[in-house]
């Protein structure tokens, strides 16, 4: 499967592959893609299998399938090594890709994510939610999730961000979103693999993130020796959209300092 994707910036630029979270699409990364492309990077933002314009397959999509899709896309584009970033579920897919294909990433971004297994209750909740959205669709689910996705400050001051996040969630194909929830419930524990990551890594988290709070980011930072931690003040689970200027500057600084420059 060739994933639907945007490919911005010069083809000779340093490639940066960014992986969206659940239940979003590649437009989640638009502020970063445009910013980095203007600075000479080649930025690839795919729609994951079953999301956006990429077709789905089956009732369960495990994270290894998502990761292999990304490697196939990189191969299709002729990218042997690249900067690899992901947010939330996208970050877990990044961790899966690093486990299975450790030679592909030259630098890593892990944003608002966590490596551990779900509790039994949280795991069951993913299955239950998958069944629910398959039957009911995404609208009510999106409305319930939105107040936790972005901070109160963002909702009060950035109606454009709130509208974008709501649209992505409501427009997500119910089958793809459900398949990803079922697969995500069965993911392995990525914590042991964190210490094996030996490339420059940027760990970012919103200070008001309710899903993956700052303590989760601090844990990832402790486990990865070559990592830098940035806390984006006032942002929730989507700091790249809520505080795009701060997020972009942190990412640009990281790329420069890590040597991943065009």
In short:
This protein has 262 residues and is an alpha/beta fold. Helix content is 48%, strand content 15%.
Keywords:
262 residues, AB_hydrolase_1, hydrolase, Rossmann fold, hydrolase activity, 12 helices, seven-stranded mixed beta sheet, 48% helix, globular, alpha/beta
Structural account:
With 262 residues, the protein is an alpha/beta fold. 48% of the residues lie in helices and 15% in strands. It has twelve helices and seven strands. α3 links the parallel β4 and β5. α2 crosses α3, α4 packs antiparallel against α8 and α5 runs antiparallel to α7. The longest helix is centred in the middle third of the chain and has 17 residues. It is globular and about 45 Å long.
CATH architecture term: 3-Layer(aba) Sandwich
Strand content: 5-15%
- Counted up, domains total 1
CATH superfamily annotation: Alpha/Beta hydrolase fold, catalytic domain
Q: Provide mean pLDDT, rounded.
A: 97
The radius of gyration computed from the alpha-carbon positions, rounded to a whole number of angstroms, is 17 Å
SS-based class: alpha/beta
Shape: globular
